[in-house]
Structure formats: structure tokens, C-alpha cells
């Protein structure tokens, strides 16, 4: 009998600063019947040596050294050598609670779950926020199809998932995951987690969701890509993701529900990656998603996360807005162009026309907005997103996505 009950797979690339903490948090688990598979995805730093050094000290650790192929290829490589019946993924710059594996395993076995989901912690610049699912409980196959999947990608609020895309706060059955993971196109370099999670969910017959937070997700401002060098390539890859999801969910969701889910998901990804102003075949002006905000408006950008950074970077090239200030409650040293992140208290009502809250999560948007109102910012000076589905659908078609969400240009054209 194989004593290994869980295979923990860690894809690794360029994270030597964080990797030891990640590995230590796993080998110190209260649950000991696991193997740890460290996949060095051609990392150019000291990560390969760190992996090998740990493997010499702990027989439960396997190390794979491979040419760089991206996150998805590393996850596939790890799964190929995994020996346990359950699979957990941990990103190499994150870390886990001591009872991470113990809790996941007990939840999975007790409920004979194909998929086990938990809460997590989000760490940014030393501050930790607890994130918990809104729909804890056990779901059978009928309930997964009737209540979970129709809201998984878009839960009715722009743009919030009914289930998180992340693979790292979940426990998978190896046999089912093998059917899913190796069918995901390696060219899907954005939204890999969504391609895996939602496809896997569609095949699951028993699901358990727990609010217990066990995983520490490190949100790093230095890991965010701050500009789009090739919009056509980005659209091509996003089209691959949406097409993959359409194929995998078409037999479960009705066409209208699935189209709505994917329209909003694609729109949200386009917003974040484009810095708000969506590029349409080199047309000017680009699509401006902010209601009532016009070109040349004096803007304060709230949030130094991915979306905020993209807004700043895009505006450096387009000069569409006049960005007068960049603020965040998580104030830290970060600069794009001449703009540096400043504390929220630095905002004055007379300094700007509109304030853009750079998040597509409605719950987060509401929380930030309530704080801004308390700080004296008027409601009508806080920008809102355009979220009419008809307008979004027309935009997507105008950009060149077909009815299957594939982008008009093939890879040869894009390159």
C-alpha cells in the first residue's frame, strides 16, 4: 500500500527569495503522509540549488529540473510523477498553515469529495487579509450543476466569481485531474488556474467548500507585468482560455448562461490587462469603460495592485487621462513614470474630476468606496464601470472575437 496520500506540487521560477519559507511550511505539516514535488521550471537564479539541498535532507522531496515552459507545463510535469491519490498545488512564493494538508485531507475523505475548496489569506506588504468563500457546504452532482457552475465564473455582480479560480486552495483527485490538466493548451498563459478549476468542477460529482483559511497567498507588486507589449498576443491567449471554458462547460450550462459568464469574464480580463482603455484594432479613441469619465479628465487612481499599475503604465503611452495622484491604503514604495504611491489621506476633493478604484471585485470596490466617502470624497466623483452586457458583447465582437471566443488572428499572424 502506498503510504503517500497527497502529492504536493510546487512550480518554481525566479523566486529564490521566497522559496525556503514555502518549502519549510510544507515539510513542517502536521500531516506527514505526503510527497513534495519541486518542479524547477528552468529557474535562472539559485532556486535549483535550493531544491536539491532540501531533497538531500528529506526523502519525501522529489526534484524535477526542466527547461522553462511556463506555469502550466510545470504543473503538468509534477502531475506526471505524482504517486498519491490526491493532488495539492502550492506556488513557490507562497506558504501554508501547519494544518493545511491535514484539513484538506479530512474534508476530502469525510465527504468523498472530488474537489475540496478552502479559504485563504492574502498577504501584501506585511498586511494579511482573510478571504473566505461565500457558499460553504457539501454539494452533490446535481447541486454542482444547478447552483455552483451557473455562478462559478460570474455570480451576477461585475465581476465576481462564485468560485475562486485558484488551484492552490484546493485538493484534487489525481485520476480526475489527469483527465483535465493534460487537455489544457500550453499556450493558455493567462488564466491557467481558471482553465483547470472550472473544467475540473464540471467533471466533479461531489464538492466540499470550507471557510477555514489555510493558504497564504503573497501578493507581490514586483511580480506584476506592468504593460502590454503585444495586445494581439494577449487577446489571442485570452481567446484560447474562453474557448476552452466554452467547450468544457457547453454540455452543462445553457448557451445564454454560458455566454453571459464568458462575456463578463473576458471583459474583466481585458479591463485589467489593458489598463482600462481597451485597444481595438489601433482605433482611436480606445474603449473607455469608465462611466462619465472623459479624455483629459483629472484622475486619482486608487490601488497599486495589478489593475492600478496597468492604468498608470497604459496612460504613460496614451496620455488619455491626466493622472494627478496615485493612492493606496497599503501605502508602499512604488513608482511608475513620475507617479508614486501615496497614502489615502493625501487625496483632496478639489484636486481631481474623478477617482478610479482599480478593482473589478464588487465587494472590494464597495468597501473602498465606503472608506472614501468617510474621507470626504463625494459619491459622484467616484468612477463606475460600464457593465451593460449588450455593450460588452458588441465590444468583444468589434475587437475580433468570434462566437466561440477565439480571437480573429492565428498565432502566425500574432507573432
From TrEMBL:
Q: Which domain of life does the protein's organism represent?
A: Bacteria
Glycosyltransferase 2-like domain: residues covered: 7-180
Q: Entry's InterPro entries?
A: Glyco_trans_2-like, Nucleotide-diphossugar_trans
Give the record's keywords alphabetically. Glycosyltransferase, Transferase
What protein name does the entry list?
A: Glycosyltransferase
Organism lineage reads as: Bacteria, Pseudomonadati, Bacteroidota, Flavobacteriia, Flavobacteriales
